[in-house]
Design goal:
Layout lengths: L9 H11 L10 E4 L6 H8 L3 E4 L4 H16 L1
Parallel strand pairs: 1-2
Length: 76
C-alpha cells in the first residue's frame, strides 16, 4: 500500500479495508510502502492496520523478510 497516494492516502485506504473486514485472517496482508520515510511512519502505518512496512529504496533482503512473514502468517 503506497502511503502517499493522491486523493486518498494509504493510511485511509487501509483503515477502510480494515473496517470492511475486521477479521485479519480474511483480509489481504497489507504492506506499507513509502519513499519519504520519517521517524514514526512505521508506527502510524501499523496503527492504521497495515501488517508490515518497507521504505524505498526497496532492498531485496528487506522484501524477502516481509514476504517470509506473510508466508508464516498464512501458514498459521
Amino acid at each position: 500500500m503506497d502511503v502517499q497516494m493522491p486523493e486518498m492516502d494509504g493510511l485511509e485506504a487501509t483503515r477502510r479495508v480494515v473496517a470492511g473486514q475486521p477479521d485479519a485472517a480474511k483480509r489481504p496482508w497489507i504492506i506499507a510502502l513509502t519513499a519519504n520515510a520519517v521517524q514514526g511512519d512505521r508506527e502510524l502505518c501499523l496503527a492504521a492496520g497495515m501488517d508490515d512496512y518497507i521504505s524505498k529504496p526497496i532492498k531485496k533482503e528487506q522484501l524477502a523478510g516481509v514476504l517470509g512473514r506473510v508466508r508464516q502468517a498464512a501458514a498459521s
